Amino acid sequence: MIKRITYPILILLTTTCVDAGLGDLNPLNFFRKNKDFEKVVPTLEEQRTAIELYQQGKDALQTGKAGRAVRTFREITKEYPHTDVAPNAFSRLGEIYRDSRKWEKSFDTFQEIIDRYPDYEGFEETVARQFEIAEALMQGARGKFLRIFPGFKNYEKAQEFMEQVYQNAPAGKTAPLALMNLARIAQQEDDNDAAIDALDRLVNNHAQSILAPDAHLRLAGIYASLVKGDMYDQGATLEAINYYEDFLILYPESHLVGEAEKALKNMREIHAQSKLRTADFYYVYRKNQRAAINFYNETITVAPNSEAALIAREKIEAINAGQKPPRSNRRPFGQ
């Protein structure tokens, strides 16, 4: 059995390590990538050598010698990682791997830039390239198996990459679309929980995005798909109703208003039928008129123009007129 470290112990360990000057042993750094990469001021000779190598790599690319270019750029990233051209060398490597359909290797190479050089002037462009790779995998792009045969589609890796893109730049231009794509992949894989999580982050963290209206409707639609009927728990029904109502309030000019109104009416009808069924239970089986009237009134409140509301009004009139509930041999709620 794996034992979890409690927060007090974790804090104690952290404080102890910091106080002792053991920064590398700080447990909060255990899961950080490239935690050992520290900025070092390169010498002029190192800068000069790295620049010369970088030019050689570019020249090799232009003459079609991709293998030589890869070796040259790798030398820069390994031997001169603190020089000014090092992130550019990583970028060139990422492009070469991408163009040869080595998707994972390309993505990880671009990630090296994100992890090591957060101040890199091409940071946003690097994230955009990662997004393109994730989207390519999402759309079914494949690499090569044994460098010859087409590889396998990998939607799980696409999902992992999309999440990484979002984490790399949660306030960036690609963030809302990354979340939407996460939801699309999850829905394609029938993972409603993951889809809801991505869409929820989109509507809450990127409310001004042009994708927010669609995210609201998708959320409502997912919850609506989970509704089994008026005999079952109405949690999903209520969530669907809330998101449809939010959509209509926030986006009254949307061309999808008609679709949302129709779906909302259907969800309210199901919820009203559920209230009506509960009211009938108290009226017929428990002979509790007060509780029955309360639920009949809730039925009317939920969907005043529904068929369920019409029946509820008739039942309330019958109770107020002193009419006794009908006798029934059926078990309540279809039991």
Total helices: the number is 14
CATH superfamily heading of the largest domain: Tetratricopeptide repeat domain
Provide the spatial order of strands within the biggest beta sheet.
1-2
For the residues shown, what is the average pLDDT? 86
**How much beta, percentage-wise?**
under 5%
Low-confidence stretches: 1-33, 144-152
Q: Sheet bearing the most strands, described?
A: 2 strands, antiparallel
CATH topology-level fold name of the largest domain: Serine Threonine Protein Phosphatase 5, Tetratricopeptide repeat
Q: State the name of the first-level CATH class of the largest domain.
A: Mainly Alpha
Element order: H for helix, E for strand:
HHHHHHEEHHHHHHHH
How far from one another are the termini? 41 Å
Level-2 CATH architecture of the largest domain: Alpha Horseshoe
Instruction: Tell me the count of domains.
Output: 3
Task: Give the gist of this structure.
65% of the residues lie in helices and 1% in strands. It is an all-alpha fold and 335 residues long. A two-stranded antiparallel ribbon has the order 1-2.
